[in-house]
Design a protein that fits this description.
The protein is mainly α. It is built from three helices and no strands. It has a domain of 41 residues. The termini are far apart.
Amino acid sequence: MSIWKKLKEDLKKLTNFLVGTKNTNKPLVLKNEVKKIDTKGLEKKTKAELEKLGRKIGIELDKRLTKAKLISEIKKQNKKL
């Protein structure tokens, strides 16, 4: 084996080690698993809790909106799931 091929293999192994990938032949597959949530008791939650809940189902909520609007957005998105 030539020195250049050996160097190329070693650099590839080093890059994989530093990046944390073991096998670069497989494509990266992202899992977009969003589950429906229970919409009972949303009125009792704070705006911050509603915002976190919205992130779990894949939407970004604006805490400047009223609590009722946040709840309606969560329910609307939850129906789509």
